[in-house]
Specification:
Blueprint lengths: L1 H4 L19 H13 L11 H6 L5 H7 L3 H20 L13 H32 L10 H15 L29 H5 L22 H16 L1
């Protein structure tokens, strides 16, 4: 806002003259450029505005990796400096600044600040290029529907625990049978107290099952077991 208004005066409407600060471009650009040049070394946690102002940057590599926006800030700083420098050196001055009262001081100050800002832009630009070149763009692997289905079937196969005597450890309880004809509709006491999960077939095509795929026996087995589970 101050750059657009070509003045360092506080833009607050109705602010009395005595409350206006004595800010100059020299203070603004020297403070900002010095602050960035001596960037804080430790950036292990997010910094508040107060932290940023109280710390200095010593490692450009660390600073740019943590705050990539720093490169854009320096570019804007350079543009703002050029606008201010051109404004105070114009005749009459087009930028309101107390330093315009002494043109010789203006020339010396601009020369010194320009060297500092140019050095800053060079260093930041170089480190920004290095940092960006190290960034690796990772692409998420594209998994087809067939691969998803195969992965699901593999997990189901690994977790498959067949019913009754087909189970390696033996039946879960006295009402756990491979043949649904032998299963009592009403759960037994042993079945209710069993800590092992019941055998419930999965309705996904290709999922493991102890009966032949596509057979009527398999269809009835799945319907019976799932309906009985819902009822009990």
């Amino acid at each position: 806002m101050m750059i657009l208004n070509r003045t360092w005066n506080d833009p607050t409407l109705g602010l009395p003259e005595q409350l206006q600060g004595k800010l100059t471009g020299i203070v603004v650009f020297k403070t900002i450029s010095d602050l960035i040049i001596q960037y804080a070394e430790t950036l292990s946690y997010p910094l508040t505005a107060a932290h940023i102002l109280s710390r200095v940057f010593n490692r450009f590599k660390t600073a740019l990796e943590t705050y990539p926006q720093l490169n854009g800030l320096v570019k804007h700083l350079t543009e703002w400096f050029d606008i201010w420098a051109a404004g105070i050196m114009s005749y009459p001055p087009t930028f309101q600044d107390p330093v315009t009262s002494d043109l010789e001081t203006c020339r010396l100050t601009i020369q010194t600040l320009r060297e500092t800002i140019e050095r800053l832009r060079t260093v930041i630009g170089r480190e920004h290029h290095v940092t960006e070149s190290r960034r690796v763009v990772t692409k998420k692997p594209v998994i087809s529907e067939a691969e998803r289905t195969q992965a699901l079937l593999t997990r189901l196969e690994q977790a498959y625990d067949p019913p009754g005597h087909l189970r390696p450890e033996g039946p879960r309880h006295n009402n756990d049978h491979a043949n649904i004809v032998q299963i009592r509709i009403v759960p037994t006491s042993e079945e209710l107290m069993c800590p092992v999960s019941p055998y419930l077939p999965v309705t996904v095509p290709g999922a493991p099952h102890h009966l032949p795929a596509g057979s009527m026996e398999r269809h009835l087995d799945m319907q019976f077991r799932l309906l009985r589970e819902d009822l009990t």
